[in-house]
Amino acid sequence: MASKEDFRKKLVDLFLNTNKCRSVLFLAEASIRKAYREMFPTEIASLECMDGRVDVTYITKTPIGIIQVYSEGGGQFDFGWFSFGWLIRRWVKYSLKKKRNKIILCSYHFSKGDKHRCCAWFKYDTEAAKKHQQYLVSQFKSAFKKNHEVYPIMIGVDTDTDGIIVHGIDGKILDLREFNSDKKELLIGIKELFPQMTDCVIKDFAQLLLGNIQHIKEVKELNRPIQSIDHQEQFLFLGRGFEWFNLLNKALEVGPYNPDLSKPIIVAAKVLLQNIQKGRIPAEEGILLVTSAVYGTDDNTEYHHGLAKARFLAKFAKEVIADNVKELLPYLHEEPLVGVLNFDTFEYKEIGLEPVEDVKEEVLV
After folding, report:
1. Which one of 139, 211, 279, 285 has the fewest beta carbons within 10 angstroms of its own beta carbon?
2. Could you tell me the residue ranges of all domains in the chain?
3. What is the pLDDT of residues 68-114, one digit of tens each?
4. What CATH code is assigned to 40-227?
5. Which 3 state secondary structure label does DSSP give 145?
């Protein structure tokens, strides 16, 4: 009979083996990403819900590493958040240095088939989710109004079909779930939604949408059962550097952006508890907490700061869950998976919850 340690190992192995495969593929696809950027140079950031069913990179069939992803409960970001605002400004400055246009996707999600498969963060109120994304778009427009090459765009994701709805000016929308025309009509449709958008950006944005149109067709052919489009997450990811994890609906991903970080952790923990209570996942396999901090190959200080951040996040999350969602504790594996991710290779390195005594941490040259 499998023990709790066996089930933890199963989840750890799934995570680490997936990372190993994705890291190898990421390095092997360097030429593909280079060619993609040369053909579609616009920089793209995607602000997404922590929901495991939402992955814009995956549903647009975009190579991993092209879209800069930020995850938060309900996608309810605020440009005023210190770390998040700083990261977005740094991303914009980087794009300006590269002389690239910029798209910021502000996404909400919903289920066409069942209200209770909509966003738990907004208590299944899709209109409230839309309202916040409209507010976020207005924040970015105000912040970058002197830089007309930054395009914040609100999109909706129907998790039943993975279809994207694009929101433009004057309440106009482009619903890709019902789009049956060719690329030329798509370009015209984007221009109608965003009259001020340059032809170059329209072309690059259209590439994402064409990928989604193809993905929608593939999803329809699969005829996914209802059970598979409801929450089925078994991992709680906390931190940055999970873009490579392409197993849809396996993990709730909380970024370290919200000044009240306990709030998204609590909501995520409650969703995971419901997954167990409603039999969406095997209770005996449990839930695994995974933390990650990112660093660059040549930045020794960033690496060591990452070690401290990843360990802090793990301890903080365990305390928050123990204080607020105690019912999850019997299913939460006591030992979290703690590590750092090399952003240049997408390789995740397990470091443990505590530094090993009398052994020096790796020093990067």
Report:
1. 279
2. 40-227, 256-350
3. 999 999 999 999 999 999 999 999 999 999 999 999 999 999 998 88
4. 3.40.1050
5. coil
